[in-house]
């Protein structure tokens, strides 16, 4: 897949993610039960697109989220970059093809994302109690959805991590 | 995939750059809200048709769910009446939906007749992607006369304020968002304060003097002093008062009258009717 086509695919997936998260799921579910689709896409990038391009794409996805809110530009972009950076540094030590690993990574990444965003958005501190329970619920739901979304993304991008299984001695 | 040391260093370097750039962007957009709005309007323009379609689609699914699937067990027990019951359930579900919508429209029309306000009525078609900010999207935009700063209300009370507008949709910052604030009064004692969202279900009326008479159960209304919300619209009810401590002000916690988890129709105040 050419870089332009790759970027456009991420862009379209980002828009679809926002549309699903902000409209279709939210019309039938409370916010805390909606999986963080854009974060899962960023996690996928951290494991399968470990490069400077990946950093840019994670920043871009965060910026899309900021734009969709329309209040402040930057907090989500910064949070996504932090999560991407941390995970890409350990990506060669985690076998994310295992469903359970994907669940655990997605759970802790969602919690981490909310923590970073919370630290950046100081005006949210009064509502910490409600936000923590909401974030934990969302982390759980995102974790459950992550393995399936990873499968979907691998199909879309034709496994850019090429040779991953071979590297781990798989068939 | 082995990530080499040089590659890791490049990733950390690029991440640091993008992180600080994001912080600069945050600082800049907090001082210049119009910057965030421009991008937001573009996204809104792009999403509005899909959101409208999705809202109609999920509304339809909800109606089918209510009218059909929950009654599967009943259907099994009444196989002979299966066909008839299905048809009646479908019709019943539709009628209930019409009745609910009718009731809501009556309330809005009632509100229209009771006030001299010029109102633009719209449906909610989208919510904020994250749970950290409380924003909804309405299916009315600049072509319908919506503009930034207009007050959003419902028959029960204040909903929020329009923060960005595209041609066919508008974003409303809800009363419960931490960036939201409005000038309000305790209806009984006329004590005044600024109602601020806290991100959760309860808001706080700030800057209420300790000497002011505020009691649990008091109704809070808009003061009209902020130039956005007309005077006298119900905002909420006082749920807790804390006047202890050495502060000049007491802490007054207010529960909004609007149920923000189920907002369908919203009216935007576009001015006052000429009498």
Provide a count of the helices of chain A.
Answer: 7
User: Looking at CATH, which topology of the largest domain in chain B would you report?
Assistant: Thrombin, subunit H
Radius of gyration of chain B: 24 Å
C-alpha geometry of chain B: globular
CATH homologous superfamily classification of the largest domain in chain B: Rod shape-determining protein MreC, domain 1
The CATH class label of the largest domain in chain B is Mainly Beta
The major beta sheet of chain A can be summarized as: none
Question: What is the N-to-C order of secondary-structure elements of chain A (H for helix, E for strand)?
Answer: HHHHHHH
Mean pLDDT of chain B: 81
Count the DSSP helices of chain B: 4
DSSP strand count of chain B: 12
Main sheet overview of chain B: 6 strands, antiparallel, barrel
Instruction: Report the sheet-strand fraction of chain B.
Output: 25-35%
N-to-C terminal Cα separation of chain B, in Å? 74 Å
* Secondary structural class of chain A: mainly alpha
Characterize the structure shown.
The complex is a heterodimer of chains A (171) and B (275). Chain A is an all-alpha fold and 171 residues long. Chain A has one domain. Chain A contains seven helices and no strands. Chain A has helices at 3-28, 37-48, 52-69, 75-90, 99-120, 128-157, 164-167. In chain A, 53% of the residues are buried. Residues 163-171 of chain A have low confidence and may be disordered. Chain B has 275 residues and is of the alpha+beta class. Chain B has two domains: 38-174, Beta Barrel (Thrombin, subunit H); 181-256, Beta Barrel (Thrombin, subunit H), CATH 2.40.10. Helix content of chain B is 37%, strand content 29%. Chain B has four helices and twelve strands, in the order ααααββββββββββββ. Chain B has helices spanning 5-31, 33-67, 72-77, 82-114, and strands spanning 117-127, 135-138, 151-154, 157-165, 170-174, 181-186, 192-196, 203-209, 219-222, 234-242, 249-256, 265-272. In chain B, the strands form two sheets. Chain B has a six-stranded antiparallel beta barrel with strand order 1-2-5-4-3-12. A six-stranded antiparallel beta barrel of chain B has the order 6-7-8-11-10-9. Chain B is globular. The interface between A and B is large, with 65 and 66 residues.
């Amino acid at each position: 897949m050419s870089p332009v086509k790759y970027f456009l695919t991420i862009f379209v997936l980002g828009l679809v993610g926002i549309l699903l998260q902000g409209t279709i799921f939210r019309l039938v579910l409370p916010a805390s039960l909606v999986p963080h689709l854009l974060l899962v896409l960023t996690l996928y990038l951290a494991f399968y697109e470990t490069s400077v391009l990946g950093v840019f794409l994670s920043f871009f996805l965060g910026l899309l989220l900021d734009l969709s809110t329309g209040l402040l530009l930057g907090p989500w972009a910064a949070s996504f970059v932090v999560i991407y950076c941390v995970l890409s540094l350990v990506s060669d030590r985690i076998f994310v093809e295992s469903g359970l690993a994907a669940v655990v990574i997605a759970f802790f990444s969602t919690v981490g994302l909310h923590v970073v965003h919370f630290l950046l958005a100081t005006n949210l501190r009064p509502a910490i109690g409600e936000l923590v329970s909401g974030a934990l619920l969302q982390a759980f739901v995102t974790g459950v959805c992550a393995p399936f979304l990873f499968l979907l993304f691998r199909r879309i991008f034709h496994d850019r991590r090429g040779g991953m299984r071979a590297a781990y001695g798989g068939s | 995939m082995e990530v080499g040391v040089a590659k890791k260093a490049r990733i950390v370097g690029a991440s640091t750059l993008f992180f600080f750039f994001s912080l600069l962007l945050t600082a800049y957009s907090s001082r210049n809200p119009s910057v965030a709005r421009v991008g937001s309007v573009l996204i809104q323009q792009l999403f509005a048709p899909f959101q409208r379609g999705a809202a109609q689609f999920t509304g339809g699914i909800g109606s089918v769910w209510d009218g059909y699937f929950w009654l599967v067990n009943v259907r099994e027990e009444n196989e002979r009446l299966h066909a008839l019951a299905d048809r009646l359930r479908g019709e019943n579900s539709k009628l209930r939906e019409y009745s609910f919508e009718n009731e809501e429209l009556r309330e809005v029309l009632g509100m229209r007749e009771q006030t001299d306000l010029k109102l633009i009525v719209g449906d909610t078609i989208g919510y904020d992607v994250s749970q950290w900010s409380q924003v909804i999207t309405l299916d009315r935009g600049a072509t319908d006369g919506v503009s930034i700063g207009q007050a959003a209300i419902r028959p029960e009370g204040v909903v929020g304020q329009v923060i960005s507008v595209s041609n066919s949709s508008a974003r409303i910052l809800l009363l419960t968002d931490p960036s939201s604030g409005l000038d309000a009064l305790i209806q009984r004692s006329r004590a005044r304060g600024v109602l601020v969202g806290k991100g959760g279900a309860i808001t706080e009326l700030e800057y209420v003097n300790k000497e002011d008479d505020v009691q649990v159960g008091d109704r809070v209304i808009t003061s009209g002093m902020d130039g956005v919300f007309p005077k006298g619209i119900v905002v909420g009810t006082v749920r807790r008062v804390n006047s202890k401590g050495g502060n000049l002000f007491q802490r007054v916690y207010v529960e909004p009258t609007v149920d923000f988890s189920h907002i369908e129709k919203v009216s935007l105040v576009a001015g006052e009717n000429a009498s």
